[in-house]
Write a structure and sequence with these properties.
The chain is mainly β and 684 residues long. It is built from three helices and 34 strands.
Length: 684
């Protein structure tokens, strides 16, 4: 099974529109952004946060957002209780597939630290123009682009004491009136395992990552003054020897090349934006290079690869935006044992996962209301080749599962429809009210459909359970509502939201009942295998952001989030739901000096999934300090995270899968202890 070699230029992203930003000069504030065709946004810039090894670490600064962390470079976005493929996650406008069946190379791991200008999240119900699958919201990494008539650049670096983690990156833009070139490079290194507040080594958490790339842009603009250009960009990512202690294997290597060709044009007063992108990703992982393999354990090596395309085109004029888009991908994954050359398992073989969609969106001011209404129709096509297992001849249960899979109808074709309405009523120039309604649909991931033998290749669930898939899973269908307000004065802002969504055919693991699955899992040491299935669920909660200018030099900001996820078909909770949390910070800004003290408080999470044997976690509070000097062309900052070296367990970090470490196997992963850091950048 091969991907089509030809693609029509298709699209989803609308034309860029002016942004209005509310923030003070502290450099630490959460930014609230409102776009003409895009609705409400929350955003954070890397310079305003503590040093990160992965862009996903910025998510905790945004209302309703959090991160499922399976390792230092493996952060999966979560928004209002939904995560993984349900959250539309784009880097530089692209939606491209990862190589790893356990999401070790998450979408956000492809964001360059030095190139990232901001991490941007649609606040609330995402408009249909945001992407194909937005049932769980939409997150974008906005990166620097090659700019005309400009020579500029930046060199940045950071060092974190806990784990001896370092980073250095640089970018340069060289633009004339007609041509522009942007080049960049990131190098990240984790030399030691990080330690918890109880001085336990969190092993393995070392890593080595390099990212290089560039973009060339050609100016097509004429005397009319319209912005028109075409560009080609390239990125190479290389990650080696990186730990993922919440998963059964660690990263041996990830090697990915990405190419993007894009353009923006004026066509008789219509703004056209398009791009075509391609990714070729190779990924090796094992259970013996970075962690101790006990004598009773078998050595396993997984060699995975994926090729994917993303194509987009949109046309915008006045109140209207129309678009087409397509995402196509193929996945292969083979598991071997380096000590037993005959052992070979097709984890996934020739899996294709394709989607095609079209949307229309209208936005208009009517009296004191601003209405945004959109619809998207999308078609999903998935399939998989036959699989093989070298032990099928001696293990009847595996033989039965392999035969059932190979004889089944693996080709699936489904059509879904998204409808979204967002309204904003401006009561005064300071107060506005927000309402949103939507019906969203989403397809199962390829792991949920085509995992044929009990394994843990689950897209990063990190629950320690083995799963099998179900090829004919129905589309998830969510009915969403959001209510809120935005209040803004010269020195105070408050933006609360409440939300509720009812999801029919929600996909999660249920206890497997197939005797062959149970028998095969028992041979692998799991007495409670799971099968992906359609159930019914609901999520509800609230989140808010607020700022207050105390005086000329001091301001405060706050972000708070709460979400509850429940099964509707049985009395149970959804798995891996973020506990209630609050970030409260005080910022100081005088002349070029900046400082911040921040408290992050996280509540206990007792509403856990009994079906998935999820463990509860206790609440905790952390205190972080930082101070810096921000001059005209350079910035220097120093700080301490987890000032009191608090020992805590991060509910979203999964369970330890490493034998023989300081943390017992199956125990909740602890958070990082006291971490002193230094960062700086020079801009020209």
């Amino acid at each position: 099974m091969k991907l089509p070699l030809s693609l029509v230029s298709l699209s989803v992203i609308s034309a860029l529109f002016p942004l209005t930003t509310f923030a003070d000069d502290s450099g630490f504030e959460i930014i609230e952004v409102t776009g003409h065709h895009q609705g409400s946004y929350s955003a954070v810039v890397p310079e305003s946060a503590t040093p990160q090894t992965d862009i996903s670490g910025l998510l905790s600064n945004l209302p309703g957002a959090s991160v499922n962390g399976n390792g230092p470079l493996t952060g999966i976005a979560q928004y209002r209780g939904l995560y993984g493929d349900r959250v539309n996650t784009q880097v530089n406008g692209m939606t491209l597939s990862s190589a790893g069946p356990n999401a070790m190379d998450t979408p956000l791991s492809y964001a360059s630290l030095v190139l990232t200008e901001r991490l941007e999240m649609v606040r609330g119900i995402a408009p249909v123009s945001a992407g194909t699958n937005t049932i769980g919201g939409s997150i974008q990494v906005i990166e620097s682009q090659a700019s005309f008539d400009e020579v500029s650049g930046k060199v940045a670096g950071q060092y974190q004491d806990n784990g001896e983690r370092s980073y250095i990156g640089g970018k340069g833009n060289f633009g004339s009136e007609q041509h522009a070139v942007l080049v960049y490079a990131d190098m990240l290194k984790g030399n030691e395992n990080t330690t918890s507040g109880d001085d336990k080594a969190i092993s393995p958490t070392t890593y080595d990552k390099t990212m290089v790339g560039g973009q060339y842009r050609y100016n097509l603009a004429d005397s009319s003054g319209h912005d028109e250009s075409i560009a080609i960009g390239y990125q190479h990512l290389e990650t080696t020897n990186a730990g993922t202690p919440a998963l059964p294997m660690d990263i041996d290597f990830i090697r990915t090349d990405r190419v993007k060709i894009e353009g923006q044009h004026d066509l008789n007063s219509w703004d056209m934006n398009w791009h075509i992108a391609y990714s070729d990703a190779q990924h090796g992982m094992d259970n013996f290079s970075e962690r101790t393999k006990m004598p009773s354990m078998n050595a396993r090596y997984n060699n995975a690869e994926s090729q994917s395309y993303d194509a987009l085109i949109s046309l915008a004029q006045d109140a209207w935006v129309f678009g087409l888009d397509a995402q196509l991908s193929e996945h292969n994954s083979v598991i071997t044992d380096p000590t037993k050359p005959m052992f070979n398992v097709d984890n996934f073989n020739g899996v294709s996962d394709n989607s095609f969609s079209a949307f229309a969106q209208w936005q208009q001011d009517i009296n004191q209301w601003n209405w945004q209404i959109g619809a998207r129709i999308k078609h999903y096509q998935t399939d998989a080749d036959e699989v093989n297992h070298s032990m099928a001849g001696t293990m009847p249960a595996i033989k039965m599962l392999m035969t059932q899979f190979n004889n089944s109808d693996r080709s699936q074709s489904q059509t879904g429809v998204d409808l979204a309405i967002n309204g904003r009523y401006s009561q005064t120039d300071k107060l506005s009210w927000v309402v949103g309604l939507a019906r969203k649909q989403d397809s199962a991931s390829y792991q949920q459909r085509y995992l044929w033998v009990p394994m843990q290749s689950t897209g990063g669930l990190a629950d320690g359970r083995t799963y099998v898939g179900q090829a004919d899973l129905d589309l998830e269908t969510a009915y969403q509502i959001e209510l809120g307000s935005d209040y803004q004065t010269d020195n105070f802002s408050l933006s609360p939201r409440i939300f509720f969504q009812r999801i029919n055919d929600y996909i999660q693991g249920v206890v497997a009942t197939d005797p062959a699955v149970i028998m095969a899992a028992a041979m692998m040491g799991d007495d409670n295998p799971m099968q992906f299935s359609n159930v019914d669920a609901q999520l509800y909660g609230m989140d808010l952001s607020a700022t207050y200018q105390l005086n000329e030099y001091f301001n405060a900001d706050m972000v708070a989030s709460y979400v509850r996820g429940e099964r509707r078909d049985i009395s149970d909770n959804l798995y891996r739901i973020s506990p209630a949390n609050l970030n409260l910070g005080i910022n100081y800004n005088v002349n070029n000096w900046i400082a911040r003290i921040e408290t992050r408080a996280v509540a206990a999470q007792n509403k856990v999934s009994d079906t998935q044997l999820e463990q509860t976690t206790a609440g905790y509070a952390l205190v972080n300090l930082s101070v810096g000097y921000d001059a005209e062309n350079w910035l220097l900052k120093a700080g301490v995270d987890n000032l009191f070296d608090t020992d805590y367990q991060d509910h979203l970090a999964g369970y330890n899968r490493v034998m023989g470490s300081d943390i017992a196997a199956g125990e909740r992963m602890p958070g990082t202890g006291l971490n002193a850091w230094l960062s700086g950048e020079y801009r020209f």
